Task: structure prediction
Amino acid sequence: MHFFMYNDFSNLVVEYDWGVFVGLNNEKFKLNLGLFSKIFSLTSYAITEYEISDNYCFAENFGLLYCISYQIKPDENIYNLSIAITNKDYFLLTRSTNPMLKIYTNYRFSEDLMWFAEAWLKTSGSFNLSINYFGFLARTGLIWQIGK
Amino acid sequence: MANRKIKILIISIILICSISSCNKADLRSMFISYESVNTRFEQSLNKNMQTGYQTIETTNDEYQLFVMSDSHVGSTKNLNTFMQNAVNADATAVVMVGDLTTGKEDDYDVFAENIEKYPTMLKFPIVGNHDIFFNGWNCFYKLFGSTVYYFVVKGTDFSDIYFCLDTGSGTLGDKQLEWFTNQLETKRQLYRHCVVFTHNNLFRARHIPTTEPMTEELLVLLDLFVKYNVNIVITGHDHKKDVSFFGNTTHIILSALLDKNVDAAYLNLLY
Result:
């Protein structure tokens, strides 16, 4: 969290996202849907430095948030593997027409300690019928649920 | 057993659609594109090295650019109206912001034939997503050359720079973005006004099933537009006119020029 908070990509533009997200899950399938607003905003530094007198932000409202996933085992299983199409990551919400493909696996060492790894494929232009590779993300780590 | 057969049938239909092309939409490109934006960028820059970047000199204090998008030729009635109006108004040039054709070679030939009726009018075309359907980039490149370039309009006491960028694949790609950033860093301060043309609209003005650049890329572009005081960004793709403002930059989405659009329109940019 601190890394993201104090390492802005830009001192001129920031993005705020807020929304609501609900889910329907069974043993193998998960369907999560929600709505969100995405607000692009100028920083106070940008407003002062570039003498901007108006139009400090632009909002895209009522975007669709979704995550559709399939996993091979129930949640409580010692290991799992899943695949998902989603436009939501921890700190990134993409437009609803920019889905990302995620493959996820985890292994539970104990009830409160779990290792996970995930790989993401991002493409642009798929919904424009002109797909282009955009990026790849891999993430791994340990999740320790304190007090469980 | 019946369920299994139905599943196999559905998957087969999807696969057939994904690797073949129906008449209007190149569904194959939803999964596999013919070329990447980096490839088109490299070819464009090679062409630019041969032809150079155009400077249009004018002795007038004011000049006009006629700008259109989404003609989707096919039919050419609005395209010809646009071109004739530009000629009648003695426009300095016309800019065509993508989705000029359906991507098919026949439609490229029709488009080229029709704009060649106006040989004295300077034309600056850019690809849109439709133009690269059905391997259409090869046709565009053969007919028009580069899709990533800039041109300058120079008067006696002013100089304006216009960037044409390729977002036909929904992204600038890393090479084009690096080039564009470098151009802004080295050139922006030399010009009075700076305008960017690209096909894919950046802001999502309404809920439609087509898409815009990824948010991460949009934030980088917005940062550049603020930092280098880009005055106007003109796009198409959405087919519905919209004017938005973010900081000192005006973002214009053009209405589609295609013949069956009841709100067909073009932009007359007067400086």
In short: The longest strand of chain A covers residues 57-71. Residues 117 and 140 of chain A are 4 Å apart (CA to CA). The beta strands of chain A are 13-25, 29-42, 57-71, 79-86, 100-108, 113-124, 132-144.
